[in-house]
Amino acid sequence: MAIYFFEKLKSDFSQYTFSALAFLYQKIFREKIDDEIKKFIKNLSYVGFGTIFSTLFSFLFNILAGRILGPGGYGQFILVQSIGMMLYIPMMLGFNTAMIKYCAENRDDDQLKRIISTTFFLIFTLIILSVMVYGLFVNLLIAFFSVNMKIIWFSIIFAVLFVLFTLVTSTLRGLHQMEKFALFQSLFGIVLLLSFLAFLFVQFVTFEAMVYAYYIAYGVIFCVIVSISLKKYLSFQVDRIWLSKVWKYSGYALIGGLSFTLYTNIDRILINYYMDIGSVGIYGVYYYASFAVIGLFSGIFVTVFFPTASKVINKELLYIKLKKLIPLLFIIGIPGTMVSEFVILRFFGKEYPVDLSLMFIFALTAVLVTTYTIFAWFFNAEGMLGARLTVSGTMIIAIVNVIFNILFIPIFGLYGAIGATLIAFILGLWYNYYFGKKIFEQAFGLSRVNHHEKN
Q1: CA 451/CA 76 separation, integer angstroms
Q2: Which of 26, 37, 90, 378 ranks highest by number of CB atoms within 10 Å?
Q3: In this model, does residue 21 exceed pLDDT 60?
Q4: Average pLDDT of the residues in 36-49
Q5: Contact at 8 Å (CB) between 122 and 193?
Q6: CB of 61 within 8 A of CB of 270?
C-alpha cells in the first residue's frame, strides 16, 4: 500500500510539474519544446519529486534538532558538518564530477563499467590514505580548527560517509538514472528523520544524535544503491586510458571543489574561533533558512542540467537561455527567499532572533550564490576551457571570502560573515560574466551570441 501510494504520488507530481515547466519554458523562451527539452523537463520532474520529498523530512529533522538542542547543540553539529566538508576534499579530488561528465557522454556499457570502476577504485584508495594521514596529524587538526578530539573524529567519519553517498548518487546522475536518483533522495530524508526520532525516543538528546542520524542515512543509501543499481558496473579493473582522462579533468574540479568547500564552511569555523558555538548555531540556522527554498530548486535544476549539458555538443543556445533567466532569479529570488527565511526562523523558535537586515543580506547572497552555481556547472559542462574559468572564479571567491571573514567577523559579527560572502560572490559573478564571453567567443563566436541575444 505504501509503495503504491508513493508511486501514485510521484506519477501525479511528475505529470503536473512537467505541464507547468513546459508552459513556463514556452512563455519565457517563446519557442516550442523539442524531444531533448521534453526529456530534460521530465528528468527535472523526477528529481524535483525526490528532492522535495527528501527536503520535507530533512526540514523536520533540522527544525526538531534546532528547537530541542538550541543554538549551542545545533552549532556543534554545524561545526562537525563544516569541518567534515573540508576534510572530504582529499578523499574525492573532484573525481565524481569527472565521472558524471564522461559517463553522461557515453552509451556503451563496457566503457561505462571502465569509467565507474576506475573512479570507485581511485576514491576508495583516497579515502584510506586520507584517514591514515588525518590519524597521524590529528593533533594538528585539533589546533587548526580549535576543537576537541571528539569533534575531529566525528568530522572525519562524517567526511568518509558523505564521500560514499556522493559517489553513488553521482554515478546515478552520470548514468541519467534520474528516476532512481529521486527515489533514493526520498529514502535518504526518511532514514535521516526516523533515525533521529529513534534517538530521541531512547532519550539520547545531544548533537551526537544528529551526527549519528546522518551516518546511518549516508550508509544505508550507499549500500542500497550499490546492491540494487550499480553492481553490474563495478569490477576490479582499472582502465589506464580513463584513469588519465578522469584524472586530468578532476584536477580542475578539485581546485574548484576545494575553493567551494572553503568559502561555504570557513565562516562557521571562524565564527567559532572569534565568537562562540551558540553564534555558529544561529548563523547555521540563518544560512539554512536562506538557502532552503532557493537551494532546493537550484539543486534540482543543476542535478539534471550538468549531465544534460555535458552531452550537448553546441552549447550556444543553452548559454543564451541561461542569461535570460538571471533577471528572473533576482526579481523572484530575493523577496521569495526573505519570506522563506521568516517562516523557517519562526519554526526554529525564539532562541533564533528574527533580524530583517540580516535576512536581507542572506537573501541577496543566496540569489548571487545560486546564479553563480548554475553558470559554474554550465561552464564545467563545456570542457577544459570552461572548467578553467569556473576554477579561477571560485578561487577568487574563496580567497576574498576568507580575507573578509577574518577582517569583518571580529568587528561586525554575523553581519561580517555573510557580508564577506556577499562581496566575494559579486566579484566572482563579474569575473565569470566578463571572461565567459571570451570563452564562448572561442567556442562559437561572440558575434553569434550577441546576434541571438538581440533577437
Answers
A1: 53
A2: 378
A3: no
A4: 65
A5: no
A6: no
Cα separation, 377 vs 369, in Å, equals: 12
**pLDDT the model gives residue 356:** 92
Distance CA 216, CA 89 (A): 21
Q: Which residue has the cell 537550484?
A: 298
**Per-residue cell: 306:** 550538468
Answer for the pair 271, 70: CB distance below 8 angstroms, yes or no.
no
Nine-digit cell string for 284: 547555521
311: confidence class by pLDDT, cuts 50, 70, 90: low
Residue type, 83: I
d(CA 449, CA 71): 49
* HSE-CB of 184 using CA atoms within 13 angstroms: 26
| Other CB atoms within 10 A of residue 103 CB | 25
Say which residue the cell 548514468 belongs to: 175
* 300: nearest Cα among 116, 94, 50: 50
Which three cell numbers, joined as nine digits, stand for 207? 548533537
Mean pLDDT over 141-156 rounds to: 92
Inter-residue contact 449 to 311 (CB < 8 Å): no
* Local structure of 179: helix, strand or coil: helix
User: How would you class 16 by CB atoms within 10 Å of its CB: exposed for 0-12, middle for 13-18, buried for 19 or more?
Assistant: exposed
Nearest alpha-carbon partner for 71 in 417, 414, 408, 402: 414
Whether pLDDT at 445 is above 90: no
Q: How far apart are CA 300 and CA 52, in angstroms?
A: 9
Nearest Cα residue to 319 out of 361, 381, 231: 381
359, 78 contact by CB (below 8 A)? no
Q: pLDDT: is 22 or 402 the higher one?
A: 402
> What are the distances in angstroms from CA 77 to CA 209, 280, 351?
9, 10, 17
